[in-house]
Amino acid sequence: MILKNWIYRSFFGLFLLLLVPVIALVIYHIPTKKPIQNPTVEIKQEGSKYILFRHGKPYFIKGVGGHDYMEKISLYGANSIRTWRTDKAEQILNEANKYGLTVTLGLEVGNEWWGENFDYLNFEDVDQKIEELKEIVECYKDHPALLMWNVGNEVHLFGGNQLIVLYTINRIAKMIHEMDPNHPVMTSVPLGPNFNKRGIMRLLCPDLDVLGVNGFSKLHRVHKDTRSIFGWNKPYILTEWAAPGPWEMNSTYWGAPIELSSTLKAQYIDKYWTVLSKDTSLYLGGYGFYWGQKYERTHTFFSLFSKDGYETESVQVLKTKWSGKSIDNWAPKIDSVIIHTVPNQDNQYLLASKKYQTSIYAQDPENDTLTYKWELRHEGKDNFNPGEYNHDLSFLLSNNCTQSISFVSPNQEGGYRLFAYVYDGHAHVATYNIPFYVLIQ
Description:
Elements: H1 2-28, E1 41-46, E2 49-54, E3 57-58, E4 61-65, H2 70-75, E5 80-82, H3 89-98, E6 102-107, H4 123-140, E7 146-153, H5 162-179, E8 185-190, H6 200-204, E9 210-215, H7 222-226, E10 236-241, H8 262-277, E11 283-288, H9 313-323, E12 333-339, E13 348-351, E14 355-363, E15 371-378, E16 404-408, E17 414-423, E18 429-439
Parallel strand pairs: 4-5, 4-11, 5-6, 6-7, 7-8, 8-9, 9-10, 10-11, 13-18
Antiparallel strand pairs: 1-2, 2-3, 12-14, 14-16, 15-17, 17-18
Helix pairs in contact: 4-5, 8-9
InterPro entries: GH, Glyco_hydro_2_cat
Keywords: Hydrolase
Protein name: Glycoside hydrolase family 2 TIM barrel-domain containing protein
């Protein structure tokens, strides 16, 4: 009997030891938002459906990540943009307001996984960061273009103690609500393998109004995973969505991700829009990625525009979805780019300092006269660090403006990419690239 009581007391003590901190955490995290009369932007639940309201009217987000070409964003039927940080925030907000656009303003916080060496267990640094963010919130909370706040981007993806990171995100969200009760707050997470367990954030981050989701090849899972028994089960926004990213694609034997042609990317955009549109209860809209031109493994992987401002087919697909209008003139379509005499097009090994022939096979829906451009670059160091990628090796090309050209392979061993561009004379471009590896004889 004594042994039995001892076991019982031990289990009861252990239960209290585990339960008390959880209860304390929940009590501490009770949302402190005080409802105000007619907030500028709010999320309301009507039955099983959540709706975003702005100035008292339903507001479905049709947006893009990035702030280039804002006039086109508005002209093509979109209504919002998303930023990742507050660099040039005032300029971006003012220009967005000029074109009738809203802004989800990103508040950049330390991200251990991205190598910023920010330690969330250093509470002094965390407190300092929150004080810095207070000044930003105070500065922009009354701007007419502000839609909502986005606290960090994939901050708790690997690296660091996720519980502490989420705790800090909620501290920031609580601070924002105390200063600005007129705009919702969210954070962005990846649509990864554990997304169907994001319900933990409802406990640890109760001051978040909505969840931002960055989704690419797994977008077909968002509806089911959001509603899983341990899922978020609250409103969400696609803060980044696009065709599959470099980390999701098959790679060559030497580790270079295979990039889809702009033609295939546009097909993904069309398919994903249909998938997302089926969720009419939790989905509040999304931001296509990336409106402009940026490096992420290549300068074409996510870029909806070329560096000289030409539109890819994906821009046109988005335009049809936003506006409901048809396109008069579509971008060219690339079927393939082939380096002749190389048998394996997926893993192409070339000999150093040897001459090769290559061709673009493309077509135009309106039979416009096509022009061509080629580039030869080093393989990027990784998805975010270009390394020698920015060194254009076009001097090795015999001619960079015809449908078929010859080129001399570099004389240094390593990975490279051959880029092909096709233009239709109507400010549209199609893109394709081939990774290859140079061997020294």
